[in-house]
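Lab notebook page, bench 4
Experiment: in silico fold of construct C2
Operator: M.H.
Input chain length: 460 residues
Purpose: comparison with the prior construct
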Amino acid sequence: MKLKYRSMSDYCAEYVRYLGIAKTERRSYAESVRLLEKRGFKDISKFKTLKPGDKVYRGYEGRTVMAAVIGKKKISEVGLRIVGGHTDAPRLDLKPRPLYEKGGYVYFDCHIYGGIKKYQWLVLPLALYGTVVRKDGKKIDIAVGDAPGDPVFMISDILPHLGKDQAKLTRDEFFPAEDLDVIAWTTYAKEKGNGERGMGNGDEPKAGKSDFVAYLKKTYKIDEEDLLSAELEIVPAGMPREVGFDRALIAGYGHDDRVCSFAGLQALIDASDNVPNVTASILMCDKEEVGSMGSTGMQSSFFENTVAEMIERQEKNARDILVRRALELSSMLSADVSAASDPHFPDVDSTGNRARFHAGPVASKYTGGTTKGGASDCGPEFVAEIRRIMDEGDVTWQMCELGRMEKGGGGTISQYMARFGMKVLDMGTPLLNMHAPWELASKFDCWQTYRAYSAYLRSK
């Protein structure tokens, strides 16, 4: 299997570069499209007809994208091979009216996005990314916290000396969600003649919100009302880093699930050098962390619409029955992460079915909790097919469950794809610290995930 990245170090260096850019789903989308176009992929609107070997993509709302290398056989006759992951990650979103002042501080009022442990977001350097859309339609992109010299933001917490009452509360009680608000500005008074700032004559702090709004107007040409039509996200500040003297791990924000989406992206780009028999494709979708809802989530019609667009350009006849047949004939690796076994918490591991670091991507026949709730539960025939493909590709991989029954559970986009009748198996990179501001991935597992998706997309 000829791959662009033949060494683990080369692949992981490129992944780290990507992860440092893709701090939000919009930035992931933009960088992914840039990489696709660099390798000759074009927007589907540029094609009147599609022929074998054509490299095509279709995006939606700057957050979800599907790309494909058209195969020798018609999509309506054999379906597609799909690697599907997501690019959104747990974070804090600014509320529609995000600015308020309290005790001399100006805060960003935030709303939790996805499953987080609230305490993990306290007293961390944070960055602000997103887009503001003015009434005239002009978009202003904001990225503060990661460039050299940038300020960062932070959520404060009480010192242990005064936190005895707080310490008596449970983990979920001691810091209310409504208090996960970020310090944005602390103007107490106007500058003195010597350039210093002071409290004045011992008075109470003067209003700082108006100063902050003036700063936004001067710096970004937006006013407070423009924040009503904004998509602004608070994420951890800082670039991905190597962990340990052996440098075998990567710490970064958003491994879940950019580690799998990026692997699929690179696997498709590599596969575009040859014409596959069956159309090879990837999905990089949005909103998985909040149930795959919305127009950019996998419960939307984006995927079916994109397949219909491809069939129409192949056959000039995208009848509903052709689309339905194509979907049912398709197969998919649901590219989402799994939980690596942590020696500090052995009681949550499923006996004999735990995922390990440095053992390759994890295949999960089903997700869900104790009762397999929300699972697509892949059939053994497709599992056997994937076993064969992995062996032929000399891929190191493992099979496991997401923890012990009655200890929790989780889900992926697999159930929303399996509803079309296609064969779907979850397969992705194991992580430590999943859903934390800084997650851990094994370099070896990242590389083998890329090799696994490459083997699948190129299989006959």
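Observations: The first helix runs from residue 8 to 21. The chain has a mean pLDDT of 93.
Next step: discuss at group meeting.
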